[in-house]
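Meet my pick.
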Amino acid sequence: IFLIGHSEGGIATAQSTHGVFNGLIISGWTCTHARTSEFDGIKSPKRIPVVAVASIDDGWRKGKANEGRCANKADGRNLVQIDLEGRRHDTHHSTVARDAVAEFLTDRLRP
């Protein structure tokens, strides 16, 4: 089982404390919030690997309290950060992101 979320779902994914997942995929979120500690960081157990995908100049993050990168909040986790060029909030358009997510899922499937 993997937990995958985009935008507000990415916030929920980053904030999940459940320890049963094979991995987390955080899309369109930075794992960062300078004014609200409840939204800052990654709360899952550190043994759960993470892939995070976001556009560098996404208008939802640029110049705001949530500007940052999940990689900066990894805190010793196995985390792969995919920084996409551009301003798009969605990430599914990127073949780089899709390929990284597919590889992440495939590498962590359990029989």
In short: The longest strand covers residues 50-55. The first helix runs from residue 8 to 15.
